[in-house]
Amino acid sequence: MYVEFDRDTCVGMFQCVAEWDAFEKNLNDGKADLAGSTEEDEDLFVVEVPDGEEFDAKFAARVCPVDAIEVYDDDGEQVV
């Protein structure tokens, strides 16, 4: 399972930070950062979800008010 985070879309509500420890507040930019991620495209960050953190990753995606977070299963199918 992996997460794609569109940082450009992020509006800095930080609800994801409260739900999954992989997200961190970046008050300088007013946006969240996805720790340990790789920038796959401009402002598109991708990270593998560690075992046991799948629920938190999915919940972080669900609470994002602007849908900047997407979760995909190992087959590349979007689950959130």
TrEMBL record:
<keyword id="KW-0249">Electron transport</keyword>
<keyword id="KW-0479">Metal-binding</keyword>
<keyword id="KW-0408">Iron</keyword>
<keyword id="KW-0813">Transport</keyword>
<dbReference type="GO" id="GO:0051536">
    <property type="term" value="F:iron-sulfur cluster binding"/>
</dbReference>
<keyword id="KW-0411">Iron-sulfur</keyword>
<protein>
    <submittedName>
        <fullName>Ferredoxin</fullName>
    </submittedName>
</protein>
<dbReference type="Pfam" id="PF13459">
    <property type="entry name" value="Fer4_15"/>
</dbReference>
<dbReference type="GO" id="GO:0046872">
    <property type="term" value="F:metal ion binding"/>
</dbReference>
<dbReference type="InterPro" id="IPR051269">
    <property type="entry name" value="Fe-S_cluster_ET"/>
</dbReference>
